[in-house]
Amino acid sequence: MTTVFRNFIAGEFVNPAKAAPNLNPSNTNEVVGEYAQGSVEDLKAAVAAAKEAFPAWSRSNPQLRYDVLMKASNEVMARKEELGALLSREEGKTLPEGIGEATRAGQILSFFAGEALRLNGELVNSIRPGVGIEITREAVGVVGMITPWNFPIAIPAWKLAPALAYGNTVVIKPADLVPGSAWALVDILNRAGLPKGVLNIVMGRGSVVGQAMLEHPDVAAISFTGSVATGRKVAAACVASTPMKKVQLEMGGKNPLVVLDDADLATAVECAANGAFFSTGQRCTASSRLIVTEGIHDRFVDALTERMKGLVVDDAMKAGTHIGPVVDESQLGQDEKYIAIGRDEGAKLHWGGERLNRDNPGFYLQPALFTEVTNSMRIAREEIFGPVAAVVRAKNYDEALAIANDTEFGLSAGICTTSLKYASHFKRNSEAGMVMVNLPTAGVDYHVPFGGRKGSSYGPREQGAYAREFYTTVKTAYTLA
Ligand code: NAD
Q: What is annotated as the active site (predicted)?
C-alpha cells in the first residue's frame, strides 16, 4: 500500500478521510506520492490548535525562535538535492532550478532566524509633560497561508519563516497540485522544535480548505499568493469576516522587458530567454512582453529565435534539460488556447508553440515567440503563465516606457540599455514594484522586499525586513511616569 502523506495538526499526523495522487508532469505514469485531502473539520482543528498555541509562542524567547529556524535552515541546506528533486518531480522545474529553489528556502529560514532577534521598537517623546511613548510590534495571531503551485517550497518558506520568527502561529494550505515540498518543509520545521500547534498543515482543495480558512473567525490574517481571480475572492472574504482579517495578496503579472537600440544584444537575449522561458515561463515575474525599439528589433528577434532553438525541452530530472514540462494538462490547455488567440488576433507566431512528445508521457510545450504584437491584444494584456512571449515594437524609449506601463499589472519590469539616462529614467518612472536593469525580470534576492503594484499585489510587501509590516501589529503605549 502507498504511504499517504498526512496533514499535521496539533502536533500529530492525522489520518485523512481522502487522499489524492501527486503526479509528475514530466511522466504522468509516476505518482510522486499520495497526499491527504483535508476537510473543513481538519481546518477547524488546525485553527483551534494554532489558537491555543499562540499565547505561549507569541511570548516565547526570540532565542528559541532563532534556534528552530536555524535548525530548519540547516536541514533544508543539508537535504537540498533531495528536496530539489522532489520539487522537480512534482512541479516540473529542471533539477538545477529545483535545487536552487530548495537552497533559497534554506537561505530565507536563516535570514528570518536573525530577524527574530532583531525585532525592535521605538521610544518617542510625548507632547504632554511627563509622558513617555513606546511603539512596539506584536505578533498578529493565527495566520492562514494559501500558496500557489509554481514555487512549491520558496513561497511557503517566505511566508512561514517571518510568521514564525515574529511569534505568530500558522495553518498553511499549499497548492493542491504540489503539496509535497510544503509538506516536507513543515515537517522539517516541526522536527526542529516548534511546540505543538504552532505550525499546522492542511492540504486539499482551495474551495474546501481554503474557503473554510477564509471564513474562520479565529484566523487573524491571510497571506495569499495565486491568481488575481482567487485573490479578489480572498480579499472580499477577509473584509466580510467578523472580525475583519488582515490580508496580503501577491498575484499575477504581465511583466515588460524593454530592449533599447543601444542595448548589448547578448545581454538582452539572455535576459529575455531567461525571463520569458526558464521555469517553463511559470513565474509571476516572467517577461511575457518584450518591448523592442525599431533599430534593434530584427536583430533581437533573430538572435532570440536562435537562442530558443537551442533550448532543450524535456524531463525535468534529465541532465541537459533547460525547460521542463508545463505543470498539468489544464495549464497546457491554457497556453495552447492563448497561442490560438494570438494567431486569431493577427500576431505572427514567429517560432515554437508546438506540443512535444518525449520518452515519457508529460505536458511538453516548445517555447513560443510572437512578433507583430500590439499592446492591446489579449496575449499582451492577460497573464498566460506559460513559455509564451510577445514582442511589441516601439518607436523609441518614450513609447517603450508608455507601453511597459500600459497594463493592469505592476509586479516586475526590466530594461536592457547601456544608457545611464534611460536606465535611471526607467527606474523612476516604471509603474512596477520591482525594476531590473540589464537583468531578467524574474530572479530576486531574499533579503529585500518583494511585491508589486496595481493588479499584481495588495497589502504590505513580502520578504526581507519589510515582512514585519504584515506579520506584526503595532502597539503605541503611553505612560505617565
Ligand atoms: P490559484 O489562484 O488558482 O490558486 C492559489 C491558491 O489558492 C491554491 O492553493 C488554491 O487551492 C487556492 N484557492 C483556490 N480557490 C480558493 C478559494 N475559493 N478560497 C481559498 N483558496 C482558494 O493560483 P495558481 O494557479 O496556484 O498559481 C498561479 C498564479 O499565482 C499566477 O497568477 C501567478 O502569477 C501567481 N503567483 C504570484 C506570485 C507573486 O508573488 N506575485 C508568485 C507566484 C505565483
A: 250
